[in-house]
Amino acid sequence: LMVRETGQSRVKEHYHTTLADDLMYMHYIHESTPRSAPRVTRGLYDAEDPYTKNRFNPIAGGDRFVRKQLPPTTVENIIKLERIVLHTFQKEAIGNRSYLLGCIAAFRALSGESKYSGGRHTSKGVQVVRGRKTVGGWIRPGVPCGVKIEIKGDKMYDFLGTFVEFVLPRLRDFGGFQMEPPSRNPHRQSAVTGVVSLGLNPAAMGLFPQIEVNVDAYHRMYGFHIHFITNAQGQGAQNLARSLLSGFQVPFQR
Fold first, then answer.
1. Most buried among 2, 11, 114, 194, by the most CB within 10 A?
2. How far apart are CA 17 and CA 62, in angstroms?
3. In a domain, 7, yes or no
4. pTM
5. Containing domain of residue 167, as a range?
6. Where in this chain does the record put each Large ribosomal subunit protein uL5 C-terminal domain (predicted)?
């Protein structure tokens, strides 16, 4: 049985008809002359030296990714949402992996995704997060400690619409997601990647309609993070991503 979409996503249609044009108008930078060629940076070692020919040759002066400029403003590179990643960490699962079953069931209900769902071979479903290195003696390599799921396409916009219209208005004493002060370094790694990460407490999970309709079926609610990943890269990319989410009615406060 192949399950297909029966109608257009309203949030996706809002982006293509209204929000994309507004974002391009807001962030358009006029450049009257073409950009100069990027400065050629030399390697730390001489590539012609036979003693260092096969050695890893980093760029002299360190990594300059944080100094990367935004690409020229065109119709093709308007900021857009590429995928949403839900992630949760459960400390109890380190000793007993069965504690992850409730998280897996909740994430399947929230996203509507499962492995190869709808005949899409790119759908990986809920993935178990395992430790990569030893941390404090209680996280070891290969030990399951959390779950995550990637949402793409129309389901991504459906989740965003549900999050904005059903969850955020019902949060108590919520005035918006906190932003860092303007005094923070604008060249840090997180500011140039175009990723906005938000955290929700366990009570917020119960406000999603997919969970609320059958909340008794879950052992308990879980707190989790939502990572909105966009196509923006360069200086000021995170501010571009926040303006995109603000167009989807996600509130921020400083």
1. 194
2. 42
3. no
4. 0.84
5. 77-248
6. 144-252
Task: Name residue 117's amino acid.
Answer: S
Distance CA 175, CA 248 (A): 16
- Looking up residue 203, the CATH number of its domain turns out to be 3.30.1440.10
Cβ pair 72, 31 in contact under 8 A: yes
Q: How much of the chain, in percent, has pLDDT values that exceed 70?
A: 94
62: left (phi over 0), alpha (psi -120 to 50) or beta: left
The larger pLDDT score, comparing residue 162 to residue 136, is at 162
Q: Is residue 238 part of a domain?
A: yes
* Pairing of β 177-178 and β 252-253: parallel
Contact 83, 228 (CB under 8 A): no
Q: What is the pLDDT of residues 11-55, one digit of tens each?
A: 999 999 999 999 999 988 888 888 888 777 788 888 889 998 888
Per the structure, the count of domains in the chain is 1
